[in-house]
Every structure is written in structure tokens, then in C-alpha cells.
Amino acid sequence: MKKNMLLDVKNLTKLYTSGYIRTVEVIGSKNVSFDIKKGEIFCLVGESGSGKTTVGNIILRLIKPNSGKVLLNGKDAFSYDKRVYWKKVQAVFQDPYSSFNFFYNVDKPLNDAFDLLETSPSKDGRKKIIRSTLEKIGMNPDEIIGRYPHQLSGGQMQRLLIARSLIIHPNLLVADELTSMIDASTRVAVLNELLRLKKNEKMSVLFITHDLAQAYFIGDRIAIMRKGEIVERGPIERVIFNPKHPYTKNLVASVPPLHEKWKL
Amino acid sequence: MNKTFLQVKDLKGYYRGTFGVVHAVDGVSLEISEGERIGIAGESGCGKSTFAQLITGTTTPLLHYESGEVKVNGFDIWKISPEKLRKDVKCKLISYVPQAMLNSLNPVLKVKEFIADMLKERTGRKHSVKEAREMAAEHFEKLGLDKNVLDVYPHELSGGMTQRAITAISTLANPKLLITDEPTSALDVTSQKRMIELMIDIQRKKIIKSLICISHDLSALNQLCDRIIIMYGGKFVESGKADNVINNPLHPYTRALMDSLLPLERQTRNKSLKSIPGVVPDLRTPPPGCRFHTRCEKCMEICRSTEPPTIKKKGRNVNCWLYRRGRSK
Fold this sequence. Notes:
The complex is a heterodimer of chains A (about 260) and B (about 325).
Chain A: E1 5-18, E2 24-37, E3 41-46, H1 52-59, E4 67-72, E5 75-76, H2 82-88, E6 89-92, H3 96-99, H4 107-113, H5 123-136, H6 141-144, H7 154-168, E7 172-176, H8 184-201, E8 204-209, H9 212-218, E9 221-226, E10 229-235, H10 236-241, H11 246-254
Parallel strand pairs in A: 3-8, 3-9, 6-7, 7-8
Antiparallel strand pairs in A: 1-2, 1-4, 4-5, 9-10
Chain B: E1 4-17, E2 20-33, E3 37-41, H1 48-56, E4 63-72, E5 75-76, H2 82-89, E6 94-97, H3 111-123, H4 129-142, H5 159-170, E7 177-181, H6 189-204, E8 210-214, H7 218-224, E9 227-232, E10 235-241, H8 242-247, H9 252-259, H10 301-305, E11 310-313, E12 316-319
Parallel strand pairs in B: 3-8, 3-9, 6-7, 7-8
Antiparallel strand pairs in B: 1-2, 1-4, 4-5, 9-10, 10-12, 11-12
Helix pairs in contact in B: 3-4, 5-6
């Protein structure tokens, strides 16, 4: 095993079955293999139903694969104690509005994050850490602490969730369609946050998206998924501007360019 | 010069409820001539969809028409009776495809039965399913869509196919103007492209004359539209030819919006992009003066107190004090 390897996914296959007598099987993912290095942003791109989220959920240990392995630091992910595993792997999901409990103010998830740590600081210590973390990601703590979810914008909430994972300081952050619910004008702030995490904290990110442009902006390497299988992978520059697989070619050609016009 | 088809003058529409009065569309004027494709863009909460509801007369509860006029081919749609509006204007002159269109097919009817139902409503006489299917099949064929869609239930269709089918169904009666709200935003990139191609095709084949497309995706609008209007805080801030607005934005808001976009182009990689600071203003208490001044980099004294006039500059309309006469910039 290479030294700077963080996550190794080997031949992951997941079948969703439904029905008891006449069982119907749907392929979630099929023989998916890739690896993520330390301090790297790896993008998983595909259309809806291509199995990107299935792979993300298996890596998060939310569902079990039918076959195949996920190795974190060379050790099988499913052999870790859950608490230890989730200290190393954290997630930010698509919908910020359902990630918060709207009866509590937004500090609660941040405070709860400390429970995952082995040595939890005192109440004042927690407050201090929360304030400094919020400042670190460029948010004004006075504007955030004590507020309720409906008082914040989607972009602010997503950044708060990133702040939450900063407190836990995982090795890998799984960002599943992080920006698809928030406005274009604030999307960039969230993406810049991920880039800063990678640079300053050396955190690895699995960036799951359907948007090639975002993947290109942020990623180092990319894998294109279709119907549960990876059809093309490689450095992002090569895959997007010199695609080999016909499906990738079609995908890249479908993204509307901003400064040129299609001949329609 | 093409003749003007839709004329909107100083249109105002507010949401009224226990939460107060939301000035969602606040004094908007627009003229559309036949053959134009127009795109309206802006952040969420800027009043784009409200504007579409107001010009088609399909207001949702709490949204109230306040003042102004909307003239479609001589009909002032807020003066005529709702019955006349439904019979003579909707679907025949204007067709409106709302945002949550994926839910607008009837889940317990096959698509062709749904069309027969709709035709009965529109023409006032009963159509057999067979007749409706023939009519729709002809229309679908013209647009290069799969006719088999008509024989299935909505849940059997994919999102992209449903969207294309609904757009085709809404143009069955050859309306002059089609208004679509976020037609591409719930779709994958490949379906998005086909949707854009379909809308251009509908216009080329003379089924509709003009198109208004509301979207937050400026790169898709640039492919589809000739003219782009940027909306902010219930008002139009800039309008002009699509190329000009995108390649040389004048209003600070348009510039900020363009800076935050992520097109798939070589130069965007690792380029530092800026997001627009702050949030869209609460339209219950819209800021005085220019509505963008709270987030504007180039905010001046006058912006805080007085609303900017519409200024014509380089063939475009801009609502910004930066371009008032006597100021070079």
C-alpha cells in the first residue's frame, strides 16, 4: 500500500432488491474501484441514477455493499468501531434545510460535534473553539451564534456544516451534492471553503456532483459514473478536455458554454 | 419592425398575509414583440416566478395583483373576467409552464387521457381519447418526440421526458407566447441540452411566436434567448441583447452575478471566484433607493436615498446611478 493513500475502494457492488416472491434487483453500483490520496479532492460525477450517492453512502457506512471492500488507512472500514470511523469520515449532504433541527438554534449541531471527540473541552472551551472555527471559515460568529435555521441562508447553513466537520477534523469529507440546493451567487463561497480545507488542513474530499463545471473548478481527479459503473477516470484536466469514452464526450458537450453559442 | 405582442406597464404584485406585505414585483415594464426569445435571470427570491404568474393571470393564494397593466393582443388580462381569461387567453394566446411541472400530469391517467381531458376544457366539447391521441401524436411527431409517451402513465417517464412532453402538450393549441419557469434546472446536463433544443425547435417550426424563459442559469439562457433581463429585488435592473449582457455587463449586480458563475471553461480552474456578499433583501421592507445598494461595491450617497432611473446605454436599459448623464464611466 502506498504511503499517501487514504481511502481505497475495491470492486464495490451494491444491488438493491425489492419484493419477496418475485425479487427485482436494481444495480446501485457495480465493480466500482478508486482511491483517494491524502489532501486530494476526488470528484464523482454522473447523471441522476448513476450510483454516485450509493458509493458515497457505502463509504459513510450508511449502507452495506453486497461485495467489495472499502479500506481506510489500509484497514477495512466495516471493522472499525463506528465512533472511531465517523471521527475519521464525515459528511455534508445536499439539503441544508433538512440537516438542521429547526426547533434548536444552529449552535447545537456544532456543540454536539464535541461529543464525538475523546477529550471534550469545557463549556467555555467549546464556545471559544466554535467562535474561532467560524472565524476561520470567514463567518462572523456574532451573526451566527444563537440564530435559528430559518434566519440563515442555504449557503450559510452549508458552511456551518463544513465548520462542524472542521471541529471533528476528519481525514475524509464526503460532500454529496453540496451546492445543488443553494443559489449560484453563494455557491462559490462554499466551494472556496472546500479548497481552503484542502490547502490548510490537508483534508481529503470526495466531491459527489452532477455538475461538471463545479467538478472542474474544484477537483484534482475525477471519475465519471454511468449506470453504476465507472466509465472513465483520470486527472481532471485530461478527462474534461480530452475525454476518451463516448459517454464522457457527450456529457462534456452538453454543458452550455457561457461565452460561445451552440449552433442550433 | 415586428408588432408588439405583450405589453406590461408598471406592474405591481404583492404577497399579503399575516407576515406582512412582500413587494415581490414592484413596478416592472416590458414589451415583447413577435419572434423574440427572452430570458429572465436573477437569484432566488427576486420575483422572477411571481412576475410570470402575474403576466399569465395564474396567481397563487396570497399573491395579489396591485396595479399596472398587462396587455396581450389587446386583452388587458387583469380587467377581463377570469372566465374569459381562461377561455380566450390561456393556452390560445399564452401558455404557462410552471416550475413544479413534473407534478402537473395526472398520475392516475395515461398521458393521452390527460390530453383528452385538457382539450375538453379548452374547446368546450368532448374529445374521444383516440381523437386526442391522434392530435397529440401529430404534434409530437412534428417536434421529433417519441409518440409512445402518450400511451403510458406519468410515473413511467423519466424527468427529462416528462418535461419535454409537458412543454409539447402546453403548445398543442399553438399559443403565441410560451412562458416556462425553470425548464432546465431539475434536469441532468444531457436532458438540459435536449430541452433547450426542443424550445428553439418549437419556435422555429412556428408553433409559438415568442418565448419567455425564467432561469437562474445564465449559460443556458445565453444559448436559448436573444434578450436577457436581469431581475433583482422585484425590479428589472438590466436588459439587453444576450451577448452584450453576458460579455459586457453594466449593472454592478449583473457583474457580481457573472463573477460568481462557474462555466466549464479552461480559465475558471483555480481562478478565485467571488460570491455576492450578503443576502437578497427582505422584500417586506425593501431598502430605500436602489435595492441593490446594501450589497453593492460601488454604492454612492445617492443610491441610498433615491431610486435610479432607467438609463439607455449601448442599446441596453440599465437602472443604475453610475450611468446617469454627465458621468463618464
